[in-house]
Design a protein that fits this description.
heterodimer, A: alpha+beta, five-stranded antiparallel beta sheet, four-stranded antiparallel beta sheet, elongated, B: mainly alpha, 0% strand
Chain lengths: 275, 207
């Protein structure tokens, strides 16, 4: 029966009537004077039931929301949203020390990169640029840092474009990586990378550098908190000397020491080397 | 050379698996607002057209509904209901409030498209897209015919007791009882069906 209100209590019928919208003025007053958190909860349960029934009874295609009306709603929305929206800057890295071992090493690493490059060429034709809103105000700090790196580096930068990895996402993700060996500084840019629930899964960056004992360098764990364009700073745990590729895996919260590579959605092979 | 094909394929990360739209709206994410309009704008517009007397009134209603949705987004709990059902509930609540305010205005509208409730077969087909709606459709068939008809006219067409009494020939008092007890009974049936489905799943069977 519905929560703890007795099944034949007249209040049950009043609450059902409220969900149907058929209360008389006297009944409405009676309900308002006897409202409790429990009765509100029961009323909402009946409202959900009526909503489910309404959905079941709806026939055929839904009418499309008129575009002018959509624009009005969008224009008015900011006034009704929380005052401090979530920033699009990625969450700070979680410190995870470890090595990416087991399945990759040495020549296998370079072979993997060669395959990745061919995947990039094969996948490129299927991707279209995604028009996205610009980054949020808070994110401009990282945008500015990335722009500064791009504009002011004395030595050529290492740049790579994201391509589908071994386990592509349902929607294409575009973006790129810029890295400065001199500064040991770099930034990942993603457009369309799905928002993750950090309590279930986190993204982890790996930097493939053959000079580093044949194992990828842990680039840290990060979260995507909003759709659209996101800039994520790279925080390599070890010095990067000769990056050949950047890879993103999806891991358990906190990242892993050894990746099983069971979910590798993105790969960015380096097309040309910087000094 | 490493055989990449030997690597096991993991599950794709899908947006749907990651977070409900309303949770992101509740955090103030602008992109989530657009996503919500894309996902549910048609549903809300269709509901408003059906339960509003004029096109202008429906447009006003839709704007009010989405304002309510932005305000109540933080209350959405996926453990309680599907997101689409929650959106429909907020929409119906606002539309019922508006109906109450203009209770002296006629219910007939300039929208002449057929709004007749579906036959049982079509209800089942439509309900396949939403398992909560499917449960409602299935449980609806277990109500008495008069209760079912009265509930359909009340929920789907938003008719008053007097209007339902006129179209069905039933006394107004009977209509009131059928509508409310019908909804109470429907809720009970849906809850017990949901418990049965969960128990079945726990045992390893299908729902």
């Amino acid at each position: 029966m519905s929560q703890n209100i007795p099944p034949h209590d007249p209040l049950q019928e009043l609450l059902a009537g409220a969900a149907l919208g058929d209360l008389s003025p006297d009944e409405l007053r009676e309900l308002q004077t006897s409202a409790t958190p429990l009765s509100q909860s029961v009323r909402e349960a009946y409202e959900l039931t009526a909503a489910a029934l309404d959905l079941a009874l709806t026939s055929g295609e839904q009418d499309e929301l008129p575009s002018e009306l959509r624009q009005k709603i969008l224009a008015a929305a900011p006034g009704h949203l929380p005052a401090n929206p979530v920033v699009t800057q990625a969450a700070p890295f979680t410190e995870v020390s470890g090595k990416f071992t087991g399945l990759l090493g040495g020549r296998e690493l370079l072979a993997w990169v060669a395959v990745a490059a061919s995947l990039l060429l094969a996948a490129f034709a299927y991707w279209q640029p995604i028009d996205r809103p610009g980054p949020s105000i808070v994110e401009k700090t990282l945008v500015a840092q990335r722009a500064e790196l791009l504009d002011e580096s004395a030595t050529p930068l290492i740049q790579a474009t994201w391509a589908a990895g071994k386990h592509p996402l349902e929607q294409p993700v575009t973006g790129d990586v810029v890295w400065s060996n001199e500064r040991q500084e770099g930034y990942m840019r993603f457009v369309g990378l799905p928002v993750n629930n950090p309590q279930r899964q986190q993204y982890q960056l790996w930097i493939i550098d053959p000079t580093r004992d044949d194992v990828p360098i842990d680039g840290g764990v990060f979260d995507i908190t909003t759709e659209g364009e996101v800039i994520v700073p790279i925080r390599a745990k070890l010095k990067v000397s000769d990056p050949q590729a950047f890879a993103i895996t999806v891991e358990q919260p906190g990242g892993v020491v050894v990746s099983e590579q069971t979910n590798l959605p993105l790969l960015a092979p380096v097309a040309s080397q910087g000094a | 050379m490493m055989n990449l094909d030997a690597l096991s394929l993991g599950p794709k990360v899908t947006t749907a698996e990651l977070e409900p739209i309303l949770n992101r709206v509740a955090r103030g994410e602008r992109d989530a607002v657009e996503h919500c309009l894309t996902e549910y704008g048609g549903l809300v517009w269709s509901l408003a057209r059906r339960l509003s007397p004029t096109a202008v009134d429906a447009e006003d209603a839709v704007q009010e509904i989405f304002v309510e949705l932005w305000k109540h987004a933080k209350r959405f709990d996926p453990a309680v209901a599907k997101e689409v059902t929650f959106v429909a509930m907020i929409a119906r609540r606002r539309l019922i409030d508006r109906q109450r305010r203009r209770s002296n205005l006629p219910k007939t509208t300039e929208f002449d498209e057929a709004n007749e409730p579906l036959s049982r077969e079509n209800v089942q087909q439509q309900a396949e897209i939403n398992d909560e709606a499917a449960r409602a459709a299935a449980c609806l068939t277990r109500l008495k015919p008069d209760e079912r008809r009265v509930l359909e006219l009340s929920v789907y067409e938003g008719q008053t007791h007097a209007e339902i009494a006129k179209s069905t020939g039933l006394p107004v008092g009977t209509v009131k009882t059928h509508a409310r007890r019908g909804l109470i009974r429907l809720r009970e049936l849906m809850q017990s069906r949901g418990v049965s489905a969960e128990a079945s799943l726990a045992k390893g069977g299908g729902s």
